[in-house]
TrEMBL record:
It comes from Candidatus Cetobacterium colombiensis. The lineage of its organism: Bacteria, Fusobacteriati, Fusobacteriota, Fusobacteriia, Fusobacteriales. Keywords: Hydrolase, Protease, Signal, Thiol protease. This is NlpC/P60 family protein. SUPFAM superfamilies: Cysteine proteinases. Residues 34-156 form the NlpC/P60 domain. Belongs to the peptidase C40 family. PANTHER family: ENDOPEPTIDASE NLPC-RELATED (PTHR47360:SF1), MUREIN DD-ENDOPEPTIDASE MEPS/MUREIN LD-CARBOXYPEPTIDASE (PTHR47360). Pfam families: NLPC_P60 (PF00877).
Length: 156
């Protein structure tokens, strides 16, 4: 009987451990954060100033979701869906702001039609995206974007 109790306790402990690990938004290491930042910075230098074009997928004009597709494919070997709305269903939703990491996708809803917009989080409340007015830029979430914030998703 004592042996069965020990086995039960081990199984219970492992089950609880998996439950907590599976539900957490684990922080990445400083090394990983630094590597992601370097990759995104290099990508930004290649695309900076590219004008916005709805449906655009090239450096002659790009929309926000195509920009994220290029970034994740080229720098992280990760495929993303074509539209912002379908991107917003991928990965794990990050509920607490202090769990956001470099490389997470940040989503916004804009205007009365609630158009979806996406960018990549850089840390320190900054994100890279394709702006309709300024093209590919880095913006501060705490400015205009804070009122339109929707969600953050971890896909890396």
């Amino acid at each position: 009987m004592l042996k069965n109790n020990k086995i039960f306790l081990k199984i219970l402990f492992v089950s609880i451990l998996f439950l907590f690990v599976g539900c957490s938004s684990a922080k990445i290491s400083e090394r990983e954060r630094s590597q992601r930042t370097a990759k995104i910075t290099k990508f930004y230098k290649e695309w900076k100033g590219t004008r916005y074009r709805l449906g655009g997928t090239t450096k002659s004009g790009v929309d926000c979701s195509a920009l994220m597709q290029h970034l994740y494919r080229d720098k992280f070997a990760t495929a993303l869906p074509r539209t912002t709305k379908t991107m917003a269903e991928k990965g794990e939703k990050v509920k607490k702001r202090n769990n956001w990491e470099v490389g997470d996708l940040v989503f916004f809803k804009i205007g009365w039609r609630k158009t979806h917009h996406v960018g990549v989080y850089l840390g320190k409340n900054k994100f890279l995206h394709a702006s309709t007015s300024k093209g590919v830029i880095i913006s501060n979430i705490d400015e205009y974007w804070n009122d339109h914030f929707w969600q953050v998703r971890k896909v890396l």
